[in-house]
Amino acid sequence: MTSTFPDISISTDRLVLRPFEAEDVPALAEMMSDELVTAWTSVPHPYTTAHARDWALREAPAERTEGRGIVFAVTEFLTHRLVGCVHLHHTDWRALSAEVGYVVAPWARGEGYACESVLAVAEWLFRDQKFERLELRTAADNTASQQVAQKIGCISEGVLRNAWIGRGRTGDGGWSELRTDLIIWSLLPEDLDEMREQPAGNPGYAAAFGDWS
């Protein structure tokens, strides 16, 4: 029988991670139309309101109910504004491992929201779901995503050569597909334990778990 994650929400000091709702569709469409999202993900381009509605109301719920993973809309605690998305996928229920992907809205970047939301999901995955491994894959030129992996304590395990197709701008303002390497990162429960023992100075981690210590 296929295993599934529970239908839950996760709260941190600044964020609420919850299932997508119909009201999120306009903000989701805007977020996923950003140039960096187009460049580093495989989402359709142009990304339309119809794409956002299908993802929020059909595809994202099916990830959980069909046992593939779980999708969280990331919102600000105070404003309820959509700031991003965290997606657990490629879930292996026997090995208790999953891969995580994340997107942050352009206006919300630089606030530590990616670190905070991914760490909150990792803590829940390890503590409540008893998983043993979380994996991230970042394109070789996507330095922002690599910084997130490093800040939350991930270990770089190697490179998958020529394994990803990104997008780059063409001279006429369009987009062309570009092959690139993927860097593999992993996070284990003991890595989070080591993060807790580090001196203060990691705002993302402190914000994520300040109310759980």
Automatic annotation (TrEMBL):
Domain N-acetyltransferase, chain residue ranges per copy: 15-181
InterPro entries, sorted: Acyl_CoA_acyltransferase, GNAT_dom, Ribosomal_N-acetyltransferase
PROSITE patterns: GNAT
Protein name: N-acetyltransferase
Classification lineage: Bacteria, Bacillati, Actinomycetota, Actinomycetes, Kitasatosporales
